[in-house]
Amino acid sequence: MAVTKRLYKKIVGSRGSVFSRFSLWLGEREDHALLVEGNLMTERYQRVWLRDVQAFLVRPSRQARWVTITGLVLVVLFGGLAAIATGIGVSVFVTLLCLSLPILLHGLFFARTHHFYAVTAVQRTEWPNLARQRHIRKALARLEPLIREAQAADAAQATPVAPETPQPDGLAGNSPASVP
User: Global pTM?
Assistant: First the structure.
């Protein structure tokens, strides 16, 4: 069986919800990044040429903070109530405590801490799968050298513009000094 060469390499892992997934891929010639958004029925592709990237914009998100705080409040509340309850109340509050632990763990380890955007001259594209600092660091470590290389090659291929030749002030006899 023939081995097929992969045209794209995954930059970082996928991210999404139950109904949609986002993944970020690097092109075969390492000259563009491809954001793939897939849901239950369709896929959407968005290409960003590395030579066109002007900046990356990273801004903090409050999602992880609020999910973690909510999970922590529920765990403390149900843990405290389970500690002071008697009889059947203990099992009810311990069950509620166990149901609130995944909320706390999701906030601590998986919730979005940052929004990441690739900025070009004509658009600002959010890359949703870069939502945690470790993913952002990994992607930037991989992309920054490729962007510098692509932009340097693009600048080297640019043709120099010839300087404009100065136009004469006027023909002989039509200069302002010769007008009576």
Answer: 0.71
Write down the pLDDT at residue 162.
60
User: What is the structure's pLDDT at 18?
Assistant: 79
Which residue is listed with tokens 């892992």? 13
Give φ, ψ of 18 to 5 degrees.
-65, -35
Using alpha carbons, select from 121, 116, 130, 119 the residue that is nearest to residue 25.
130
